[in-house]
Amino acid sequence: MKDHLKLTSKQEKTLKRLEEVLKQQNVRLTKGRLEILKIIIVKEHPTLNDIIAVLEETGHKVNVMSVYNTLDMLLDKHIIYANIFNGKQICYEPRVQESYHLKCDSCQEVHHIDHLGQFGEFFKSLTKSSEVVGWNCDHFKIEIHGTCPKCHEDLLKKNH
Length: 160
Ligand SMILES: [Zn+2]
Ligand SMILES: [Zn+2]
Description:
It is a single chain. By secondary structure, this protein is an alpha+beta fold. The chain folds into 2 domains: 95 residues, Arc Repressor Mutant, subunit A; 65 residues, Dna Ligase, domain 1. Helices cover 46% and strands 14% of the residues. A 3-stranded mixed beta sheet has the order 4-3-5, with no helix packed on it. Helix 2 packs across helix 4. It is globular, with a radius of gyration of 18 Å. The termini are far apart. Belongs to the Fur family. Its cofactor is Zn(2+). Keywords: DNA-binding, Metal-binding, Repressor, Transcription, Transcription regulation, Zinc.
């Protein structure tokens, strides 16, 4: 069996936080489920196929249906989020309170930003505005489309 996934200290913290949320909901994290959650934390925005590939690489016996069931459960408990960036494939990521995605419509790259800095307050005020109509907001997702620096540069060169 190959080396297990190595989590950075930040990823370790994310895992602990999510495990705590699961515990509060009385969900037992079996070894298999834990491994899937770790993959989602370590690999940025993996698809179902990516997750299966990592499981196989690390010497796990893969049962696609049970991977699927685990993803379903984690989604249901708001432990992970599902995103569709290219209109086709679903990518998973750990739950975060605040984040947004920059998507390049030219090369399809997705950039994840979770430090909102001074804009954090602005985003929070957006959820506040929904409370006015009686909603209790859990989280929000924002996707900003455009061209990444590299594609933008290529485009300028082409038009020159
Ligand atoms: Zn690009
Ligand atoms: Zn993300």
